[in-house]
């Protein structure tokens, strides 16, 4: 596995290009820099680490890491429905039919480990620098903190795709993913356990939090980004007190504010820099826009394919309160008459007008992944935003039995969404819910729909994914996926299994 990774890194990164040989004559083109030169220079290592951010969106072909990561996670949620069958390998995820032959799974695995290798090379260079001034030592620490945070992100994504949630069975025996913090001796690695993988991520995040010392903009890693990562990690580990502490540290940092109710409906249209709610995002510029191959390429038809719609299940939840501002993230495709006017439809409980249907599926598109700066398909993937810190606290409080505090956190988010009065939750007004935890999970579903959270939230909380709304002809996936099913685990790509005899494949599904 890692031998292939090294070749890839050398071939795409000008900072890691070595000298060339021909006819036994060594020469070094002046436009190229050797790896040794890069790793012995703080300035060049800084350029390399800035380049490592690009792994979060870069692609060898047409699909970037951000799109591939989205394909193998969000498409498994109950917030989406496919209105036209597709031969693209994302369908293996969408239909819960994991296979080692999936190109999306292969891309996700290889993009991740190529990035990890590059990060490890840069870390070793930073660790080996000598004779630095005190000012340069501070700069080195910041750069290393950014770098190891990025590594923690890749590993956290990997273990959540190929390993069972930490809360399932025994994380000390469930298999995670191969781990490495070095650029050498990476071939033939075995899979660490889920527990070992989470411990590796935790160590990286804790170290990053101590090293990060510069208040950078939200397209770079700062201390608060690492603290947000720790809060999410501890929630997944069900270490609820720690999750609350780290969420509070981000909330109380004073660096971020929830967007106002007036500004919130245009959240997706704001570039990340200057957005007060965004803690960390991967910046995509207009020059990075590859249209339908972008992260939202399947989710909206203006510049994209528009084949994956918002599910009726999600729409039912959203329209419990039709004045919820989050309705603004739904782009309804109306039928129009000859004059271009919407056609009234009293049977449409959501909007009152006829909606275009394909395969009997109403075309409700999400706008969460498009229209940045009002440009179709342009989107900067958001990894952390402040609303999540409040809902992390809400979930942790609910699991700790502090239900009133949990509802207080939920209501902060609901009030921002324009809800008030009896639309807010109280212990004597659970609005038909059986538990406060169920309220929290539904609020997270409303708030983070189509942002990549839902699949993880369902299965780590030992819930069943209800896909019973997918009944149209051609659907070949199950209508109900319990958290115990092997379907929730992606298969390790066959190409990686063939290269590494020490890899153990995930169990296949049987029903």
Automatic annotation (TrEMBL):
Its main location: membrane. It is found in: Cell outer membrane. Keywords: Cell outer membrane, Membrane, Signal. Residues 35-235 form the SusD-like N-terminal domain. It comes from the Bacteria. Residues 379-509 form the RagB/SusD domain. Pfam families: SusD-like_3 (PF14322), SusD_RagB (PF07980). InterPro entries: SusD-like_N, SusD_RagB_dom, TPR-like_helical_dom_sf. Belongs to the SusD family. This is RagB/SusD family nutrient uptake outer membrane protein.
């Amino acid at each position: 596995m890692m031998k292939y990774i090294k070749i890839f890194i050398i071939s795409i990164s000008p900072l890691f290009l070595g000298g060339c040989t021909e006819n036994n004559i060594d020469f070094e083109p002046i436009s190229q820099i050797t790896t040794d030169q890069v790793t012995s220079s703080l300035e060049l290592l800084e350029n390399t680490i800035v380049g490592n951010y690009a792994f979060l969106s870069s692609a060898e072909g047409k699909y970037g890491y951000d799109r591939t990561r989205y394909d193998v996670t969000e498409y498994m949620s109950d917030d989406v429905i496919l209105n036209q069958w597709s031969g693209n390998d994302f369908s293996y995820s969408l239909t819960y039919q994991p296979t080692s032959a999936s190109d999306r799974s292969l891309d996700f695995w290889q993009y991740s480990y190529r990035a990890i290798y590059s990060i490890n090379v840069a870390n070793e260079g930073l660790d080996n620098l000598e004779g630095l001034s005190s000012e340069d030592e501070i700069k080195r620490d910041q750069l290393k903190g950014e770098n190891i945070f990025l590594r923690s992100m890749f590993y956290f994504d990997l273990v959540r795709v190929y390993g069972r949630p930490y809360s399932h069975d025994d994380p000390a025996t469930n298999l995670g993913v191969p781990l490495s913090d070095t650029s050498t001796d990476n071939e033939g690695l075995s899979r660490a356990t889920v527990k070992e993988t989470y411990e590796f991520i935790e160590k990286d995040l804790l170290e990053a939090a101590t090293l990060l010392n510069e208040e950078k903009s939200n397209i770079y890693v700062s201390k608060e980004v690492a603290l947000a990562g720790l809060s999410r990690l501890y929630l997944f580990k069900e270490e609820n007190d720690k999750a609350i502490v780290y969420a509070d540290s981000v909330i109380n940092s004073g660096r971020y504010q929830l967007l106002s109710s007036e500004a919130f409906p245009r959240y997706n249209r704001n570039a990340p820099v200057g957005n007060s709610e965004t803690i960390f995002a991967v910046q995509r510029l207009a020059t990075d826009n590859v249209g339908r191959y972008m992260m939202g390429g399947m989710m909206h038809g203006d510049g994209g394919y528009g084949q994956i719609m918002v599910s009726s299940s999600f729409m039912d939840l959203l329209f419990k309160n039709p004045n919820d501002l989050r309705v603004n993230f739904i782009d309804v495709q109306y039928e129009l008459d000859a004059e271009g006017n919407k056609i009234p439809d009293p049977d449409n409980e959501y909007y009152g007008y006829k909606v275009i249907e394909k395969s009997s599926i109403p075309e409700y598109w999400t706008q969460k992944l498009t229209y940045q700066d009002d440009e179709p398909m342009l989107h900067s993937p958001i990894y952390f935003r402040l609303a999540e810190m409040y809902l992390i606290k809400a979930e942790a409080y609910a699991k700790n039995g502090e239900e009133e505090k949990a509802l207080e956190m939920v209501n902060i988010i609901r009030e921002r969404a324009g809800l008030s009065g009896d639309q807010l939750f109280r212990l004597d007004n659970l609005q038909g819910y059986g538990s406060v935890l169920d309220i929290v999970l539904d609020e997270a579903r409303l708030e983070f729909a189509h942002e990549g959270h839902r699949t993880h939230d369902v299965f780590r909380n030992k819930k069943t994914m209800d896909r019973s709304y997918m009944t149209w002809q051609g659907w070949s996936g199950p209508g109900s996926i319990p958290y115990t099913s092997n379907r929730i685990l992606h298969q390790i790509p066959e190409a990686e299994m063939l290269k590494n005899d020490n890899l153990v494949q995930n169990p296949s599904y049987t029903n």
